[in-house]
Amino acid sequence: MRRVAGLTAAAYVLCGCGSTPGSSPPPEDGSRPALVLTPAQESAVAALTAPEFSRRGDPLALLDSVADLVGTTLACDEVAEHLDVPVPSFPTLQERGFTPVCGSSEGAAVFEHPVPSAADPPAPSADPAADVHGVTVAYLPPGVDADGTPFAEARSEGLVWMTILYGGDTAQPPTAAATSEPSRSDFTRLRWRSGTVLGVQYVDSGDTHLAWRSTAADHVFDVSVNTSGDPVAGVALLADGVDLPT
Disulfide engineering: 234 pairs with which of 67, 137, 157, 208, CB 3.0-4.6 Å? Predict the structure, then answer.
């Protein structure tokens, strides 16, 4: 999970996502979707193109199997209890026979690190990255298992995974996004209905990376979702999500 966590953090910096810890976003109305795009936003997502050349290479190429992504498997109900938020689900994936598997590169030791309160975050550490902890939730396509399936094969079958990070610099107020940035053909920003900024990036592998920072249940989380497909499909999947911490 450390490799994936690093990717998540980098994408967060890129998108400048976030709502200020301690702030109280408008309550979500369960009868309304948390993500609704305007026609202009739909066009912006549809116009994204994958870069021709990788800027940093593909760190996911270092993963041999799904087990390398998930880490030590953990009970999802215990993960939800620890994070104090439900493990998100995607009805469209469930209908296709996908199954969620939770885990962490820290194993059960992740439970020894409480999720800080957004209202009273810890003082900044000399090495904030060392205090970041988190879990991965992999949504496995039919026929894919968390132990033996090669990662590349699972990816080709439509693997979706989410990382939820907390602690360290994640617990601190987010830095405001730069006021002027070069135009990017592979990246755009949307907003959840709560006001939280959502970064959408079409990566050179043909996958879509979506990342945001949110305050949920009095905790601050850096969340990312990777989907094996284009941004239109990735955003549609996110809009279908249930219990996403936005």
Answer: 208
Other Cβ atoms within 10 Å of 174 Cβ, number: 19
The answer on pLDDT for 24 being more than 70 is no
Look at 88 and 8; give whichever has higher pLDDT.
88
State the angle between helix axes of 39-46 and 231-239 in degrees (0 to 180), rounded to the nearest 10.
140
Cα–Cα distance for residue pair 152/159, rounded to 1 Å? 9
Residues 97, 142: Cα–Cα separation, whole Å: 6
pLDDT band at 20 (very low <50, low <70, confident <90, very high): very low
CA distance 91 to 77: 18
> Which residue has 């592998």 as its token pair?
205
For residues 54 and 60, the answer to whether their CB atoms sit within 8 Å is: no
* Rounded Cα gap, residues 207 and 61, in angstroms: 13
| pLDDT value of residue 89 | 96
Q: What is the pTM of this model?
A: 0.84
The span from the CA of 204 to the CA of 83, in Å, is: 32
CA distance 5 to 8: 5
